[in-house]
Specification:
532 residues, alpha/beta, Rossmann fold, Luciferase, domain 3, GMP Synthetase, Chain A, domain 3, 6-stranded mixed beta sheet, binds adenosine monophosphate
Amino acid sequence: MLGGMQDWPLRIMRLLDHAEREHGSREIVSHYAAGERVRSNWAGIARDARKLANALERLGIRKGDRVATLAMNNGRHLVTWYGTIGMGGVLHTINPRLFDDQLVYIANHAEDRVLFYDAAFAPLVDRLKAQFKTIEHYVCFDPAEGQGFEDLIAAESEDYVWVEGNEREPAMLCYTSGTTGNPKGVLYEHRSTVLHAMTEISPAIFNLSASSVCLPIVPMFHAAAWGLPFAAPIAGVKLVFSADYTPQLMCDLMREEGVTHSAGVPTVWLAMISHLETSGEDLANLQGVTIGGSAAPRAMIEYFVERGVMVSHAWGMTEMSPIGTSGAPPWNWEGMSKIERVDYMCRQGRVPFGVELRIVDDEGKVLPRDGKASGRLQARGPWVIERYFQDESGPATGAEGWFDTGDVAILHPDGVMQITDRSKDVIKSGGEWISSIELENAAVGCPGVAEAAAVGVYHPKWDERPLLLVVKREGVDVTPEAILEHLSGCVARWWLPDEILFVDSLPHTATGKLLKTALRDQYKDYRLASAA
Ligand code: AMP
């Protein structure tokens, strides 16, 4: 047939080219650890990315080579993302909060050739340098430390033609913060990243436009800051980066930079809310927050809603680039009561076009989307993993491309997905399942409870019964009876924890989730009084 459309490969650098051309003066603001605030814009990022691409070529880096970063969010880190991808390299973000042996494993497994790092992580780099087998060049983002980033690019030409290629080529590598076994690498491609980014700016996900100012309170090493550095250039969003997430600094940045959108895990919002409550500060111009990475407690959602901030409760995973679902307002939003709206936001939302979900039972039988059945959540789509990086054991997907997420969920008839647990975290009591997430979130709604974790401990009659570990809110006294009383109004009677223990703190993973494996280990021999 004669005629047709153009072949325009979905390559990541087209995102930056677009931002430079159409939104060149839109700012990128970075608050560095030393306290300096550096201002650039999309044109500046593009210019520096070209200089960096030249510098990487000078260092001998070639198409497909891995270039690693060990850094918090900042503009130089962003330049490194685009400069590396632009010269055909594969950008590998490393999570500095991992244990030493995991860091060594990851860098060696990825065969990184260059490592860019924040000065704050210099001690870590010095400690592990001897064990990094493939890294030839170390570059510090902060000017004061040895061969710095600015020195590296200073004399380079501002001209560079991005390396072209197939849209299915790899662009970025990100390891999962798995709690058991070695971390696994997820390789993002140009096409998957661009499709994901195009979806992200839509009202279904982040709802970004040229007037948005976004402060990602999610690190660039956590599933690519949830894709925001790739979505932002499409809409010409102003980005605000910070090296740390102290609530006072977040408040200052929100107020001074006019932040309209932010995104982060519940732990950072918990800290933020407790700061706002004691300091009396407000959320300035904030219009929307995305909460994800772990389930958002109801009390947290209510806090934002009461202040006129739209909450988008999102679910995803590193293996999904990471967006799977998000809680954008449904068609009947206007007619919903306040309680109905909060109920809706407590669930994890709906899929955008590009993600398909289903739930199956332990035998793999597909379960109905009836709002009642709960089963193993599976996903597929163009930004969902096919196979882990350098994994000889075969594809990560089963028949027909379905990827088993390891989560347990309910699908509602209106398309809303509700995570009930990680499959390993469900508490199995008398052949039935108790959702640890629901217990925890209900507990956090009790005044005086700062954080809570529910784990199943051995019980001779019921197999497992819930034990609730609670961190008290500073300066507030709360009793186990008060918590039980509160929980009775939220969950079924047989879900109530057999015991409540107060602890000073709870362990978290490198991405801010409750570290359930450690808790299960710690309490595996715990004898409940009810088991006597
Ligand atoms: P990661 O790849 O580190 O981001 O972890 C992905 C996992 O985090 C998912 O498989 C879920 O278990 C959990 N998760 C992410 N978002 C949510 C959410 N909104 N509610 C409950 N769990 C979540």
